[in-house]
Design a protein that fits this description.
single chain, about 60% helix, about 170 residues, 2 domains
Amino acid sequence: MKKILVDSCTFILLAKASVLETFSENNSIMATKQVYDEVLEGKKKLFPDALLLERLKNENKIKVTSSNAASTQKIMHDYAMGIGEASIISIAIREKEIIAATDNMQGRKVANLMNIPLIGSIEIIVSLHKKKLITDEKAISALKILKEEGWFHSYLVEKAEEDIKWQK
């Protein structure tokens, strides 16, 4: 099973869409220390996504790994990225069995440029539905939350909704 290295935004969106737990139970999920720390900043404000990520880590459903600091800094500088996205790209360049999970536009561009396998929140929800791990209703509800909480073009969410309806 390939490992999926998830960035902060994707963790937060999947948690808000109430599919992060199902995703983590059925995949080999990882976070970099930088991503984990970034999401856990929300614990100070009792954000449910931060509390959920911490619980899933404590239950060993999500592993935390370290990225190379110099490589991460270089990617941040060269591609104008945040530390979370740069840290997952840094590891994915080095480890070919990694899939990068990001919804960040710059992160997706760099992953494509470097031929890193890539998924995002929308694809994860559609995949969970296709594998029958979530119901039609849950998938549509999760996509609606992504549309409200994320920065997705409407047509991407609408296309995913159509995909779910066609999978019946």
